[in-house]
Write a structure and sequence with these properties.
Pfam families: Kinesin (PF00225). This protein is an alpha/beta fold. Among the domains are: about 100 residues, no CATH class; about 375 residues, Kinesin (3-Layer(aba) Sandwich), CATH 3.40.850.10. Helices cover about 65% and strands about 10% of the residues. Strands 1, 5, 6, 7, 8, 11, 12, 13, 14 and 15 form a ten-stranded mixed beta sheet that branches. It is elongated and about 220 Å long. The two termini are about 140 Å apart. The relative contact order is 0.06. Bound molecules: adenosine-5'-triphosphate.
Length: about 900
């Protein structure tokens, strides 16, 4: 078990030094105390050590023996003392043994008495024995059982006793010599003494060596102690010094012993001299030697006392050193324990920090919980407040009712009082006063019971009202839930109905589309629209718009007829078309008439919309339109993109387009930059119908791309045309749109084609008066338009041969004027009087075209496996592969017949000329 500490201590050299010093002092004090005890036992108190001057002098005077002279003061003390052993010595004659400085005069006096009683030797022996015992007791008491010290001192004591024995022997031999014994016998005794002394010397030598060894052992132990930490070494320094002092003393003892040895050598010499010389001299010499030996013995005794004291001091110091070492060890242990405690303290500190952190978290949680709790309390408070308000409202209502009841009761009471009063008055007249009192009590009790009953009824009614209110609330909740369920059901039903209507709408839409196509077919595949443009400013002749309109020779009496006033002795003439658009009708109205055909393109039909008319009649206005008021081209394309987007769930559409110009019977690609050789582009027939090899087709995805493409085409056209206005009048501009629609359900592909054609001016050659290049241009225009007229006539007459190849224009439109296509011709006319003749020609040309029966159109469809799916459409009136005219079917004829009948019935359709050429 390690010692417990109140608190850890660091090693403090100062404290250790103080502790050591204290232990020294304690040891010194203990030795001093023991010494005093010893002296007390001997009858020598401390105060007795001091001698006053008087006694000193007295003793000094007493020492002067008679006949000895001054020189006796210097005699060996034992020489004089020995004289008194014979019982003749007085106190004044006692020798001074040189202890005066140690024991004092009184002690010296007592000592002398004891010496006189016991004899010197006995006294000395007693003193030594007692000192040894005291020392041993002191050692035992202090626990200083160090072998070296314990052994050395008894040995020294033993040595001392030996010396005393030797002295005694010497004295005895001296006494015998003094008594005059025979010198021969003394000689032999001396020889024995010498031998004995030699043996003693040998023994003392051995003891001295042992003492030296012990000193070395002590020295080693001290050095070992000094090898420790410096404070411990510092603590051991003092005992080391002490040991050195002891060593010095031992060295002195050794020196004394050596002196003794020398004395013995001298004794041997004296022995030899005694053997050789006279006995008296020998005795004298021996006496002198004996005195010297006694003196040496005293010296040794003194040294022994010093050594003993020094040893005691060394022991005390060593003990203190041990205590200091123990203290240092304890300090180290304390230090280790302190470190352990620090480690434990750190662990505890960490644990405390963790616990503190946990505590903080708990505190935060507690704060949050408290906040939540306070919120809940606040909410409860608010709820309580609301409940209290509700209660107070209810209480107020109840109170109001009670007050009303109370008021009623008061009224009743007042009434009752009145009645009672009257009754009393009345009764007083009839009954005695006693009877009246009894009656009034009865009436009052009855009234009270009636009021109580009324109160009870009211309470019951209130309870019933509350119950009714609760029932009403429950019913309201039930109704609300039911209504929610009904609303959900209706919503679901509505969604179902929406789905149903959507499906129905889709079905109806398909039906409508089919019917639309049927209507178109019934109407005829070439529809002819007539558009009369407004009067231009230059054509008004100074008239305002209204007056100019009133003077116009071209009128539109109905939506299907146009009337041309009589000009040049020619009668007024009226023409009928599928639709006639007056000057007031805008682009949107016109587009409404062709929009249905545009839809047909997405269904896989070939559609051609062409604007016909003399120069300046409004063809470009109709097809292109001015900026901000687009014509057929942009509106048709816008519709196509819009419808394609609507049908995106069913079909995947792709659009491409080309822009070409036919000028002087040559084809120019307006999407190609730079000069072109018009002869190089020709019209061919491919698997998908007519096409122009080498013509650039551009994919377009939206109106932005279309607009940009048309803009480039126009720009290219203007670069090579010297006079744009004149050039545009003498060339055909064809914008073609190719649409592919792949069904997402069965993979079939529909391919539609839309030609939007702004034809060249149709004025007659004779009217132009052109010559040279102009004549050539006019002839070319005439040729292509004549070819168009021939084709229309051949179609109308159902000829076996349709002359498509007579011009690039008709060749290009072969599959758009054929059996599987739909065609709209918009004849644009000028309302101006100066253009009446040309207007008539244009209207007559369009009237003939209107009579052309193209037959039932067919869808360009390719099945998913790559086969031609044209068979899905109704039986064609012409062969699909050749595109050549075939005899009309009965159905077609019947439609024509019906149209003829319609015309006849109305009397407005007039048969046109048989030829179409101008
Ligand atoms: N419906 C109309 N409403 C208003 N102005 C029109 C209409 N039609 C044509 N115009 C105007 O008449 C003029 C001639 O029209 P436009 O250039 O379209 O004739 P055109 O037949 O294309 O001539 P060309 O054969 O030379 O190209 C233009 O100024 C045009 O703005």
């Amino acid at each position: 078990m390690p010692p417990t500490f109140k608190k850890p201590l660091d090693y403090d050299p100062g404290l250790a030094q103080q502790t050591l010093q204290k232990s020294y002092q304690n040891s010194d004090a203990a030795v001093e105390a023991r010494k005093r005890t010893l002296l007390a036992e001997l009858g020598l108190a401390d105060e007795e050590y001091e001698l006053d001057d008087e006694e000193e002098e007295e003793l000094g005077e007493g020492e002067e023996g008679p006949g000895e002279g001054d020189e006796n003061d210097e005699e060996p003390i034992l020489t004089r003392g020995h004289k008194h052993t014979n019982g003749t010595a007085s106190k004044a004659a006692l020798p001074s043994y040189g202890y005066r400085d140690l024991f004092g005069k009184e002690m010296e006096g007592r000592r002398r008495q004891m010496i006189e009683v016991k004899g010197y030797d006995q006294y000395l022996q007693d003193l030594l024995n007692r000192s040894g015992e005291q020392l041993q007791a002191l050692r035992s008491e202090k626990g200083l059982m160090y072998p070296g010290n314990v052994e050395v001192i008894p040995e020294l004591q033993h040595e001392l006793r030996k010396l005393q024995e030797e002295n005694r022997n010497l004295r005895n031999s001296g006494a015998r010599s003094t008594d005059g014994e025979a010198s021969s016998r003394g000689s032999s005794e001396l020889a024995q003494q010498v031998s004995s002394l030699q043996q003693q010397l040998a023994v003392r030598d051995a003891r001295l060596r042992e003492a030296e060894a012990e000193a070395a052992r002590l020295k080693a132990r001290l050095a070992q102690a000094a090898d420790g930490p410096s404070p411990r070494g510092a603590a051991a320094a003092a005992p080391l010094e002490e040991l050195r002092a002891v060593e010095a003393l031992l060295a002195e003892s050794q020196a004394a012993l050596q002196a003794k040895e020398r004395e013995l050598t001298a004794l041997r010499a004296s022995k030899a001299a005694a053997s050789a010389g006279g006995a008296a001299d020998a005795v004298k010499e021996l006496t002198r030697q004996r005195d010297d030996a006694v003196q040496a013995q005293e010296l040794l005794q003194q040294q022994l006392i010093h050594a003993r004291n020094d040893l005691s001091t060394a022991e005390a110091n060593f003990r203190a050193q041990q205590a200091a070492m123990a203290a240092a060890t304890e300090s180290e242990q304390a230090k280790a324990l302190q470190q352990q405690m620090w480690a434990l303290t750190e662990q505890h500190s960490k644990k405390v920090e963790e616990l503190e952190a946990e505590l903080k978290q708990k505190q935060v949680m507690i704060q949050q919980l408290q906040a939540t709790k306070s919120d809940a309390l606040q909410a409860m408070k608010e709820m309580k407040g609301r409940m209290a308000a509700v209660k107070s409202d209810a209480a107020a209502a109840y109170k109001t009712q009670l007050m009303a009841i109370q008021a009623k009761l008061d009224e009743i009471h007042a009434l009752r009082e009145g009645v009672l009063e009257e009754l009393v008055n009345f009764q007083s007249e009839i009954f005695s006063e006693k009877t009246i009192t009894q009656m009034s009590r009865l009436v009052r009790d009855k009234e009270i019971s009636r009021v109580r009953s009324a109160q009870s009824d009211l309470r019951t009614k209130l309870a019933e009202m509350d119950q009714a209110l609760r029932d009403a609330r429950d019913e309201t909740e039930t109704v609300r839930q039911q209504s929610e369920q009904v609303a959900k059901i209706r919503e679901l039903e509505a969604q179902g109905q929406i789905m149903h209507f959507r499906e129905k709408w889709r079905t109806e839409f398909d039906k409508r589309r089919k019917l639309h196509n049927v209507v178109l077919e019934l109407k005829g595949n070439i529809r002819v629209l007539c558009r009369v443009r407004p009067m231009l400013d230059k054509e008004r002749g100074g008239l305002d718009a209204a007056a100019a309109a009133a003077s116009m020779p071209v009128r539109c009496p109905t939506e299907e007829t146009v009337r041309v006033a009589a000009v040049d002795n020619k009668a007024e003439k009226e023409f009928e078309f599928d639709r006639v658009l007056s000057p007031e009708e805008g682009q949107d109205k016109l587009y409404d008439e062709v929009a249905a055909l545009v839809v047909s393109v997405l269904d896989g039909y070939n559609v051609a919309i062409m604007a016909y008319g003399q120069t300046g009649s409004g063809k470009t206005f109709t097809m292109e339109g001015p900026e901000g008021n687009p014509g057929v081209n942009l509106r048709a394309l816008g519709d196509l993109f819009r419808l394609a987007e609507e049908r995106a769930a069913e079909y995947a559409f792709s659009f491409s387009a080309s822009v070409l110009e036919i000028y002087n019977e040559q084809i120019y690609d307006l999407l190609m930059n730079g000069a072109q050789d018009g002869d190089k582009l020709d019209v061919k027939q491919g698997p998908d119908g007519m096409y122009v090899p080498g013509l650039k087709l551009e994919e377009v995805k939206d109106m932005g791309e279309v607009t940009a493409m048309i803009g480039r085409g126009k720009a290219n056209r203007s670069t090579y045309a010297t006079n744009m206005n004149e050039h545009s009048s003498r060339s055909h501009l064809v914008l073609s749109v190719y649409i592919t629609a792949v069904s997402k359900q069965n993979g079939t592909t529909l391919k539609g084609k839309l030609h939007l054609i702004d034809l060249a001016g149709s004025e007659r050659l004779s009217r132009t008066g052109a010559q040279g290049d102009r004549l050539k241009e006019a002839q070319a225009i005439n040729k292509s338009l004549s070819a168009l007229g021939d084709v229309i006539q051949a179609l109308q007459q159902r000829n076996a041969h349709i002359p498509y190849r007579n011009s690039k224009l008709t060749r290009l439109l072969e599959d758009s004027l054929g059996g599987n296509s739909k065609c709209v011709m918009i004849v644009n006319v000028s309302p101006a009087a100066e253009n009446v003749s040309e207007t008539k020609c244009s209207l007559e040309f369009a009237s003939r075209a209107r009579k052309v029966e193209l037959g039932k159109a067919r869808v360009n469809v390719v099945s998913a496996d790559g086969g031609n799916g044209n068979g899905v459409s109704p039986s064609p009136s012409r062969g699909p592969a050749s595109g050549r005219a075939t005899p009309s079917s009965e159905g077609s004829m019947s439609r024509v017949a019906s149209r003829e009948q319609m015309t006849t019935s109305t009397g407005r359709r007039t048969p046109g000329p048989s030829g179409l050429s101008r």
